[in-house]
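REQUEST ID: PR-0412
SUBMITTED BY: lab tech R.K.
PRIORITY: routine
TASK: structure prediction, single protein chain
INPUT:
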Amino acid sequence: MARRPRMNLQANHFADSYDTETQALEKSTKLMKEFVKMQIDAEMAVNKNLRESLEKTYRLIHDQLENKVQMFEHSEVQEEI
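STATUS: complete
OUTPUT:
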């Protein structure tokens, strides 16, 4: 919904009241934009970390399928030594 300044036509200083209301709405809008920007930045950071983790996992799986990396159980390694 759109917001608009409250007007008091009976006030002695209508212009000052209107200017103050306009500034309050502008600052409120600016504050909300900053909150949205902060939320977007936080979500982008989380998504970046998740994407990096998934890429590492997929790379490991791919290497394992290509027999570049072999996984051994701890007991198997001890028996070979």
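NOTES: The radius of gyration is 30 Å.
REVIEWED BY: pending
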